[in-house]
């Protein structure tokens, strides 16, 4: 049960060392958030700034999102983030030798919606010292919460909690959780098309098309996203339900074979849409058809950049 | 529903299925007139967007057909296309597109009879699905009006 | 030969796949080609095939682009229904006399609508379907035929034979029928002649054993092929002819009319039957959904080509039974099916019922071809195949005459295609001074710049006589078209493709300042190039054109629903207008081509490439890793035909040394490679920099070092090449030896190396014959799995047996056992015929060691060309592009491609050179048109497009953004559909244009 401060110390030490050695010019990590239950991305460029780096049960954002185009950067990365970083190297977004990964074996991050459900009273302060629980403090109360009760969905089924391809680890390795069994996705098959459609229409009914999910996603580095295309303008700009659905479908396709289930998209969604459901449909297919998981090797070929002559596609007659 | 005549958008590759359709013509093999063909050089050109666009614009069905695996005029176009189709097919079916609305086939340029059989089958199955009310956009400017 | 009289034209006789390839290579290299074909159309035997082995490619799909290319080539004059009367003169200056037989159809008028055939009352056996169904007396040879023009069979037509009928003339909407057509004799001049008359399948009618003549359920393999074909008599249904039922059990009988001097006089192996039988078996099983048992009765399974052995294994895995036996009796059963009796090589007698027996008949030279050879003075072998030599494999006995395809021996399609290119090279080797003197060039006016102008669309709706107008209300389509945005002009035309319509189109474009043209007529696959040419003639960029296929896809298939057909035609026209309005003129750019070749590998293949290129006046740099030229051939004594390899090699090297066009870099390898087709820059490890337009990879392969059979551990065990070296040196070891054991398939055809090394059986049998001749008392044993002396090499096998060489078959699971016995050797082998173990004490054991690839992965990466799993370089297409790589400007030759004997190596080298000449001959190459382009502001540099491009046409530039090399792009659009941010766009098929079509469709 490493103390969070021990991990943070290790991160700071490494960060300072990397800056001092010139191996990195910037360390991308987390600092304390301005409101409780959050952290914020932080770019440390000096030894002093490194002291602001923290480790937390709320380090949800995937900082690999900040890598494309950068040089000499060290990244503080959970298992999923590190896999995203590998993907970005594979996809030429950053050269391998410009990247240094400070991996942090991770026992999962907290889903604030679950916290809110557990503790509806206003929260003034969070005290966290270890990675298995934290204490919520508010007007006249103090409650301890066990983290495993409020983990994000993606964290509960994370099989790659220890960053395998990190340049160093800031904490001891941790075992992976039982992988996603995709039970809900598989269960779709027993529903009628109409029921499935109703489910997905309901899922995205609150979508504002704010694109926060896209902005938080380390896969979405396109210079111009298809939603912003104008010639031809393919996707309507209003929130016509069909356009909204199309947005999620195409984003799902674009992430297929690349998504590391970091959950950043769901974390940032202001209306709590489980947007990963689209990705998970495809993740299941990618695993089943091509036995592929992204971000686990430096020289892997993403599934949509290759083929096998005997790829199975029974539905094509 | 019996007098419902579906509108189907078909995407054919130039070298195989479009050729099969040509040959079906030469052989005077009749099939229902419900689909409109968009000719592509290769199924590898088929962006998944095109399929979604067709549904969004109210197509009752979409039919995609190209060369058999291994026959691609561009060596590997249909192999790459097949991977995209596997994903797209899974995705659309999972979110509730009726399986019969979206059809994929491999038809070589010599298979005019297969072309006819599948053309009939596609139309029949889309007919059974009824009009596409679920996946069409509410408001649309149609056709050339938009280009203009 | 006086150089002033050299004629820059070539006669190619035979319009099959070989003739077509030779014609295309010559025409693309600056020679005018007369392509003479006896029948109504080109395409040959390949047009009859359903699928092709070992890739199961659809035969028609892969051949039809080639048919169209030949049919449209401005420098190929296609003479159908034509016989060659005589060829006089000498190389460089021949006079050819031909007779053009009447077609009775005016080709310039016929629109191939088929009305005539519908009305023709006379039914005739359809040769295309092997007489399994009928055609009419007026007909096209097959639906995709080129030229797609009807013809009348004068022997069957009632009008021509009896003066009655005449209904085709009455119904022809184009007035194309002319019963008074007469034969026409013409002469023309050529510099050389290529004969590619092809073969006929052996007719088993006279074979009583197989009962082909009287048993309905005994058919030939080509008949079966037609049953499998989607355009065949049963449209792909496999049936038992006697009662139309689906067979559940069928047999293939191999070597019918091949390897048989008792009943057929055909001692040779037909080379292709094992593979086509396996193919037909696999496809039939597929058609039957697994409910079909197939047995193949064979003598030796000869799957010796690239990927053939895997195909054989695949067939075994699919449950196809292989029985080693020559069937002695086939008896028709009373109702249906046949009973087949046979004896296996172990002596077991079998009798089995089959629904269907397919005779795998061989390839034979027809009496007509034999007569042609005689009249032209071409020497043939005893089987009427034209004679060639190992070192000039496509040259015939008469100077100036060359050949390709089955005319010189039985062979498969890729070998024929390879020879075709080789023949093109050889046939033009003496004609270089006359290159481009007779070829035509079309000059179009400079296109008017229409950028910035709003679209002004002109629409032409074709009646196609009654083909369209009888179903579709074309006037209504025109009225509708006039209401569409951007449409300036819309009109009906009778035949849009006729000469006068084309001329009118030109003047209307000018008159109405039309800048986009839509033709609603027939298929763009057949007619787009014609209309595009018309646009060009009118000064309009040819890409400002779109077609609506309202005939093939509409009037012809919705004849009984005119209202819907008309509505569909309106939609299709609207879709075409929508796309056309967004079309932009596409530029075709020219790039300079460096007229030099880099040839990697200085063996027989590489040296022949360089010399063949030199004949055409092109320079080469030959890069050889070793410190001397010649490669593996340095170790070989004689060829299977007995020619001295050493002498040949000496002469070859001398020629290279004396040739000012060839420079050689010894002890050199490829270092860095930059550039692309036309403009490569390669730095060699010696520091030398070579600028070249094309690259030919001829890096060879090596002999496997056996691990088994005491090789390397016993002095009396040697490999085949080592035996050759001993023989060349006159070594005592061979001199003194009395008993020889040859072991075949050492390292070949086994897990990990699942291919046949192709040359070893012939090499062994040849060596055995030579040894037996020089020392008749020698005891020679050949331990083999299947003897694969394909083609006329079978004669050697027969000779060896005649001389007393003993052949003992072994299986993979009971390999011969070698043991040292004192100073000598003892070899134990199980003889399946006697069922006993034999013990041999050879003085010398010779191992037919596999040929293994050098697995040049790094070289492949440098030139962006792939290797297959065995490490052989992987050609662009296994059937039709055997010496090209998918990457433009890259070619391959020799055993770096796959093991092959020397005659095939030389042919492949000449072929690679011929293909290279088609690039080198153009000082500037036109590129562009329908190709991809990248909008770099949208590009993230992720590399998806680079990875999915099948032609290596996309790379990342120094800013990490994608860039398309127009010279290499083929316009498939894979990049455009794979990019998440739509950075690539395929010109002519842009997202905007396709969205507009989708929108208009609904």
SSE layout:
The complex is a heterotrimer of chains A (317), B (148) and C (1002).
Chain A (H helix, E strand, L loop, with lengths): L3 H18 L4 E7 L6 E6 L2 H4 L22 E5 L1 H12 L8 E5 L8 H7 L6 E3 L5 E6 L2 E6 L6 H4 L11 E2 L13 H5 L5 H11 L8 H5 L24 H15 L8 H5 L7 H15 L27
Helix pairs in contact in A: 9-11
Chain B lengths: L7 E6 L3 H10 L8 E6 L7 H9 L4 E6 L10 H18 L7 E5 L5 H18 L14 H4 L1
Helix pairs in contact in B: 1-4
Chain C lengths: L8 E5 L3 H11 L4 E5 L14 E2 L4 E2 H14 L3 E4 L2 E9 L2 E8 L14 H5 L3 E3 L8 E3 L1 E2 L11 E2 L5 H5 L4 H5 L12 E7 L1 E4 L4 E2 L16 E3 H8 L20 E8 L16 H15 L5 E6 L9 H10 L3 E4 L4 E4 L5 E6 L5 E6 L1 E6 L1 E2 L2 H10 L24 E3 L9 H15 L29 E6 L11 H9 L4 E7 L5 H13 L4 E5 L3 H14 L7 E4 L2 H5 L6 H20 L6 E5 L3 E5 L3 H12 L3 E6 L20 H14 L3 E5 L3 E7 L2 E6 L4 E4 L1 E4 L3 E3 L13 E3 H10 L2 H5 L2 E8 L13 H15 L4 E6 L9 H9 L3 E4 L7 E5 L2 E8 L4 E5 L3 E6 L1 E3 L3 H7 L26 E3 L9 H19 L3 E5 L3 E3 L9 H5 L5 E3 L5 E3 L9 H5 L5 E3 L4 H11 L1
Helix pairs in contact in C: 1-2, 1-10, 6-7, 7-8, 10-23, 11-15, 12-13, 15-26, 16-17, 16-23, 20-21
Could you please describe the fold and organization of this structure?
The complex is a heterotrimer of chains A (317), B (148) and C (1002). With 317 residues, chain A is of the alpha/beta class. Chain A folds into 2 domains: 1-179, no CATH class; 181-317, no CATH class. Helix content of chain A is 32%, strand content 13%. Chain A has helices at residues 4-21, 47-50, 79-90, 112-118, 153-156, 183-187, 193-203, 212-216, 241-255, 264-268, 276-290; strands spanning 26-32, 39-44, 73-77, 99-103, 125-127, 133-138, 141-146, 168-169. In chain A, helix 9 (241-255) runs parallel beside helix 11 (276-290). The model of chain A has no long low-confidence stretch (mean pLDDT 94). Chain B is α/β, with parallel strands linked by helices. Chain B has a 4-stranded parallel sheet with strand order 2-1-3-4, with helices on both faces. In chain B, helix 1 (17-26) links the parallel strand 1 and strand 2 (35-40). In chain B, helix 1 crosses helix 4 (112-129). Chain C is an alpha/beta fold. Chain C folds into 7 domains: 1-101 and 183-199 and 365-441, FAD/NAD(P)-binding domain (3-Layer(bba) Sandwich); 103-181, Alpha-Beta Plaits, CATH 3.30.70; 200-363, FAD/NAD(P)-binding domain; 457-584, Rossmann fold, CATH 3.40.50; 592-700 and 854-925, FAD/NAD(P)-binding domain (3-Layer(bba) Sandwich); 704-850, FAD/NAD(P)-binding domain (3-Layer(bba) Sandwich); 931-986, Alpha-Beta Plaits. In chain C, helix 1 runs parallel beside helix 10 (413-427) and helix 16 packs across helix 23 (902-920). The longest helix of chain C has 20 residues, at 562-581. Chains in contact: A-B, A-C, B-C. Chains A and C meet through loops of A and helix 24 and helix 26 of C.
């Amino acid at each position: 049960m490493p103390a969070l401060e021990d991990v943070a110390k290790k991160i700071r030490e490494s960060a300072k060392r990397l800056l001092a050695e010139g191996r990195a010019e910037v360390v991308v990590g987390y600092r304390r958030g301005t409101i409780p239950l959050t952290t914020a991305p932080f770019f440390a460029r000096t030894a002093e700034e490194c002291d602001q780096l923290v480790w937390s049960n709320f380090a949800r954002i995937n900082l690999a999102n900040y890598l494309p185009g950068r040089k000499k950067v060290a990244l503080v990365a959970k298992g999923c983030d590190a896999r995203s970083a590998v993907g970005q190297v594979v996809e030429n977004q950053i050269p391998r030798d410009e990247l240094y990964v400070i991996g942090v074996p991770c026992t999962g991050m907290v889903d604030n919606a679950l916290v809110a459900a557990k503790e509806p009273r206003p929260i003034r302060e969070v005290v966290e010292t270890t990675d298995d629980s934290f204490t919520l403090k508010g007007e006249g109360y103090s409650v301890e919460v066990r983290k495993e009760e409020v983990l994000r969905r993606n964290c509960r089924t994370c099989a790659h909690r220890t960053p395998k391809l990190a340049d160093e680890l800031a904490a001891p390795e941790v075992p992976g959780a039982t992988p996603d069994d995709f039970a809900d996705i598989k269960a779709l098959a027993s529903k009628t098309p109409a029921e499935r459609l109703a489910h997905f229409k309901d899922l995205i009914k609150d979508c504002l098309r704010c694109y926060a999910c896209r902005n938080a996603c380390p896969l979405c580095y396109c210079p111009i996203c298809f939603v912003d295309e104008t010639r031809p303008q393919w996707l309507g700009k209003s929130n016509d339900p069909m356009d909204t659905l199309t947005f999620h479908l195409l984003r799902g396709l674009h992430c297929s074979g690349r998504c590391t289930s970091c959950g950043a998209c769901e974390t940032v969604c202001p209306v709590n849409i489980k947007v990963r459901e689209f990705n998970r449909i495809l993740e299941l297919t990618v695993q089943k058809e091509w036995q592929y998981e992204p971000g686990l090797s430096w020289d892997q070929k993403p599934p949509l950049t290759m083929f096998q002559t005997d790829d199975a596609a029974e539905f094509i007659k | 529903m019996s007098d419902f005549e579906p509108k189907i958008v078909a995407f054919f590759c130039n070298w195989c299925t479009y050729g099969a359709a040509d040959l079906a013509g030469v052989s005077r093999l009749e099939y229902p007139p419900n689909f409109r063909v968009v000719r592509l050089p290769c199924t590898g050109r088929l962006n998944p967007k095109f399929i979604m666009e067709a549904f969004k614009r109210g197509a009752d069905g979409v039919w995609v057909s190209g060369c058999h695996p291994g026959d691609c005029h561009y060596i590997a176009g249909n192999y790459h296309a097949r991977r995209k189709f596997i994903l797209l097919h899974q995705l659309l079916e999972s979110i509730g597109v009726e399986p019969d609305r979206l059809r994929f086939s491999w038809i070589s340029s010599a298979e005019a009879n297969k072309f006819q059989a599948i053309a009939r089958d596609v139309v029949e199955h889309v007919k059974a699905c009824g009009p596409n009310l679920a996946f069409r956009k509410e408001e649309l400017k149609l056709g050339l009006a938009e280009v203009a | 030969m006086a150089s002033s009289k050299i004629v820059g034209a070539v006669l190619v006789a035979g319009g099959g796949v070989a003739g077509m390839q030779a014609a295309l290579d010559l025409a693309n290299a600056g020679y005018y080609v007369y392509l003479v074909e006896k029948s109504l159309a080109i395409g040959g035997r390949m047009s009859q095939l359903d699928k092709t082995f070992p890739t199961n490619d659809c035969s028609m799909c892969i051949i039809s682009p080639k048919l169209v290319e030949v049919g449209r080539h401005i420098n190929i004059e296609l003479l159908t229904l034509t016989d060659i009367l005589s060829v006089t003169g000498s190389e460089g200056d021949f006079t050819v006399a031909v007779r053009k037989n009447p077609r009775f159809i005016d080709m310039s008028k016929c629109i191939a609508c088929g009305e005539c055939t519908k009305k023709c009352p006379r039914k005739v056996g359809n040769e295309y379907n092997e007489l399994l169904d009928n055609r009419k007396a007026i007909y096209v040879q097959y639906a995709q035929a080129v030229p797609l023009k009807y013809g009348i069979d004068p022997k069957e037509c009632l009008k021509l034979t009896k003066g009655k009928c005449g209904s085709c003339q009455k119904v022809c909407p184009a007035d194309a029928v002319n019963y008074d057509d007469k034969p026409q004799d013409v002469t023309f001049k050529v510099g050389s002649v290529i004969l590619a008359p092809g073969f006929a399948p052996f007719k088993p009618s006279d074979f009583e054993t197989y009962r082909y003549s009287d048993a309905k359920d005994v058919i030939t393999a080509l008949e079966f092929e037609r049953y499998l074909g989607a355009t065949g008599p049963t449209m792909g249904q496999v049936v038992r002819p006697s009662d139309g039922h689906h067979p559940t059990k069928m047999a293939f009988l191999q070597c019918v009319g091949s390897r048989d001097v008792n009943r057929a006089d055909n001692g040779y192996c037909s080379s292709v039957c094992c593979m086509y039988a396996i193919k037909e078996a696999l496809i039939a099983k597929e058609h039957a959904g697994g409910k079909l048992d197939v047995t193949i009765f064979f003598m030796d399974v000869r799957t010796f080509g690239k990927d053939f052995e895997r195909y054989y294994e695949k067939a075994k895995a699919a449950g196809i039974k292989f029985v080693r036996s020559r069937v002695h009796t086939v008896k028709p059963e009373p109702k249906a099916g046949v009973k087949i009796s046979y004896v296996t090589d172990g002596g077991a007698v079998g009798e089995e019922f089959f629904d269907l027996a397919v005779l795998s008949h061989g390839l034979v030279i027809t009496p007509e071809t034999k007569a042609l050879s005689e009249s032209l003075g071409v020497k043939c072998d005893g089987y009427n195949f034209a004679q060639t030599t190992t070192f000039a494999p496509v040259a015939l006995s008469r100077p100036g005459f060359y050949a390709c395809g089955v005319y010189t021996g039985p062979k498969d399609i890729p070998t024929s295609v390879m020879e075709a290119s080789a023949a093109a090279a050889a046939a033009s080797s003496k004609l270089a001074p006359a290159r481009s003197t007779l070829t035509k060039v079309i000059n179009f006016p400079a296109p008017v710049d229409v950028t910035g102008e709003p679209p002004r669309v002109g629409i032409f709706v074709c009646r196609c006589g009654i083909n369209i107008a009888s179903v579709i209300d074309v006037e209504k389509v025109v009225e509708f078209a006039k209401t569409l945005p951007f449409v300036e002009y819309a009109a009906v035309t009778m035949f849009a493709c006729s000469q006068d319509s084309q001329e009118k189109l030109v003047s209307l474009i000018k008159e109405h300042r039309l800048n986009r043209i839509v033709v609603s007529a027939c298929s763009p696959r057949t007619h787009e190039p014609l209309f595009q040419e018309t646009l060009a003639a009118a000064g309009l960029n040819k890409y400002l054109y779109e077609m609506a296929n309202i005939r093939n896809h509409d009037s012809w298939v919705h004849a009984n629903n005119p209202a819907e057909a008309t509505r569909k035609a309106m939609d299709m026209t609207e879709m075409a207008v929508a796309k056309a309005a967004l079309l932009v003129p596409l530029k075709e750019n020219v790039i300079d081509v460096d007229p030099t070749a880099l040839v990697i590998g200085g063996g027989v293949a590489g040296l022949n490439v360089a010399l063949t290129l030199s004949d055409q006046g092109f320079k080469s740099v030959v890069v050889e890793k070793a410190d001397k030229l010649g490669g593996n051939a340095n170790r070989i004594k004689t060829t299977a035909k007995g020619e001295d390899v050493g002498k040949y090699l000496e002469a070859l090297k001398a020629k290279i040394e004396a040739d000012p066009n060839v420079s050689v870099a010894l002890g050199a390898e490829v270092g860095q490679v930059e550039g692309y087709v036309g403009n490569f820059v390669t730095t060699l490890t010696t520091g030398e920099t070579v600028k070249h337009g094309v690259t030919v990879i001829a890096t060879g392969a090596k002999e496997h070092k056996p691990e088994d059979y005491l090789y390397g551990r016993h002095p009396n065990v040697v490999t085949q090449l080592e035996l050759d070296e001993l023989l060349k040196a006159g070594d005592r070891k061979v001199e003194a030896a009395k008993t020889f054991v040859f072991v075949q398939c050492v390292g070949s055809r086994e897990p990990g190396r699942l291919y046949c090394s192709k040359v070893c059986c012939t090499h062994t049998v040849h060596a055995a014959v030579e040894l037996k001749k020089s020392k008749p008392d020698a005891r020679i044993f050949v331990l083999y799995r299947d003897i694969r002396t394909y083609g006329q090499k079978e004669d050697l096998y027969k000779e060896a047996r005649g001389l007393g060489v003993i052949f003992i078959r072994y299986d993979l699971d009971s390999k011969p056992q070698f043991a040292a016995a004192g100073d000598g050797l003892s070899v134990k082998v199980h003889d399946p015929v006697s069922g006993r173990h034999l013990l041999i004490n050879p003085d010398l054991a010779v191992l037919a060691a596999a040929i293994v690839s050098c697995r040049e992965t790094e070289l492949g990466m440098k030139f962006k060309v792939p290797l297959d799993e065995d490490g052989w370089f992987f050609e662009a297409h296994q059937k039709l592009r055997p010496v090209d790589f998918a990457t433009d400007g890259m070619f391959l030759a020799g055993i770096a491609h796959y093991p092959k004997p020397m005659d095939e190596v030389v042919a492949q080298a000449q072929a690679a050179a011929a293909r290279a000449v088609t690039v080198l001959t153009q000082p500037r190459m036109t590129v562009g048109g329908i190709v991809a382009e990248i909008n770099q502001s949208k590009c993230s540099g992720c590399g998806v497009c680079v990875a999915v491009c099948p032609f290596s046409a996309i790379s990342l530039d120094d800013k990490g953004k994608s860039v398309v090399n127009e010279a290499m792009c083929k316009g498939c659009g894979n990049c455009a559909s794979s990019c998440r941010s739509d950075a690539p766009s395929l010109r002519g098929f842009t997202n905007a244009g396709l969205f507009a079509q989708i929108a208009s469709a609904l």
